[in-house]
């Protein structure tokens, strides 16, 4: 079907489908000239609403998008004798309308499948690289642990790593505050990391790692694992007295670790433990700057502890230029390299 649509139509189709599968709230709907095309409508159905779609967004989100899509298709029709609305899309809408669904507020707080397209990654073995996670994509930070969803800083850090894969290739990686595991999975699934250790201080978040590893075909992988790590607590080895089984760490990654100033002292304490174990390790942090005053506490703390902080210039793509993953370009995200000297 897609071979019958134009290059511009395919571009709009790809963008819309990627946004939909990421459960994006503000979708860029295709233009009328494409929406009234039979082949275009069938492509939307097969990629987003057919039974072949393995990991679908929550039903209420599907209903909201499909209702808006059908309204736009109907408005685009110029000649009802020659053009029409896909029967498959109409049948899908009928099923959703007859289904008992949770409220919009409840649905927003529930976990669902979210698929992030990795458009900045040069495809090698996978022509459409992506990461699927089970997360609460639209949950508010105040509603509970921030580890329930992937935040802008993580997506931006992922784009940077995709654009500079040599940073990860063959290296042993530790991620702090992994949350959904997006960065760790990216490093293990696509960036050829030698080993990845995803960590978080929340028990429920750590327990969810296995689900997200499975969704990305990493359930049997020996080069990625998850464990609990609470900042400010001594690094202990469990059954083996050596932390991380004595495995060397080349690079530490973290996204959105500094949004709460109360987290900075224990975070810096963990930095100190890591530098003691691995004096040459580099720490790469991505921080969304919601307040310059709040962010300034982090480099100040690094300086007081004798650590060197260097910022990396890597701008966020403007929202209209993004092809996946999609995230707000309103607040800047700083990328910082921290070293012992």
UniProtKB/TrEMBL annotation:
GO terms for MF: S-adenosylmethionine-dependent methyltransferase activity
Which cellular components does GO assign to this protein? cytoplasm
Pfam families in alphabetical order: Methyltransf_16 (PF10294)
The organism sits in which domain of life? Eukaryota
What is the protein name stated in its UniProt record? Protein-lysine N-methyltransferase EFM3
User: What PANTHER family does UniProt report for this protein, alphabetically?
Assistant: HEPATOCELLULAR CARCINOMA-ASSOCIATED ANTIGEN, PROTEIN-LYSINE N-METHYLTRANSFERASE EEF2KMT
Query: Which InterPro entries does this chain map to?
Result: Methyltransf_16, SAM-dependent_MTases_sf
């Amino acid at each position: 079907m897609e071979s019958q649509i134009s290059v511009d139509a395919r571009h709009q189709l790809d963008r819309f489908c990627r946004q939909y599968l990421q459960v994006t709230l503000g979708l860029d709907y295709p233009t009328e000239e494409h929406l009234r095309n039979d082949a275009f409508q069938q492509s939307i159905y097969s990629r987003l609403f057919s039974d072949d779609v393995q990991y679908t967004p929550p039903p209420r989100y599907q209903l909201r998008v499909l209702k808006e899509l059908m309204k736009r298709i109907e408005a685009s029709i110029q000649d009802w004798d020659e053009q029409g609305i896909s029967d498959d899309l109409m049948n899908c809408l009928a099923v959703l309308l007859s289904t008992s669904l949770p409220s919009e507020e409840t649905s927003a707080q529930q976990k669902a499948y979210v698929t992030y397209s990795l458009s900045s990654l040069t495809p090698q073995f996978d022509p459409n690289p992506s990461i699927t996670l089970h997360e609460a994509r639209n949950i508010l930070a105040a509603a509970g642990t921030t580890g329930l969803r992937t935040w802008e800083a993580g997506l931006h850090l992922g784009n940077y790593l995709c654009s500079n894969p040599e940073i990860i290739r063959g290296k042993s990686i530790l991620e702090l505050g992994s949350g959904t595991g997006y960065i760790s999975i990216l490093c293990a699934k696509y960036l050829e990391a030698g080993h990845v250790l995803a960590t978080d201080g929340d028990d429920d978040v750590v327990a969810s790692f296995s689900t997200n590893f499975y969704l990305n075909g990493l359930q049997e992988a020996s080069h990625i694992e998850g464990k609990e790590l609470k900042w400010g607590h001594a690094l202990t080895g469990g059954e083996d007295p050596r932390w991380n089984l004595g495995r060397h760490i080349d690079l530490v990654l973290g996204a959105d670790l500094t949004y709460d100033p109360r987290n900075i002292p224990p975070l810096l304490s963990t930095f100190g433990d890591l530098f003691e174990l691995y004096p040459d390790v580099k720490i790469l942090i991505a921080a969304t700057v919601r307040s310059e005053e709040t962010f300034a506490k982090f480099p100040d703390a690094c300086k007081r502890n004798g650590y060197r902080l260097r910022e990396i210039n890597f701008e966020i793509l403007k929202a209209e230029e993004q092809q996946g993953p999609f995230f707000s370009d309103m607040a800047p995200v700083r990328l910082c390299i921290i070293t012992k000297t």
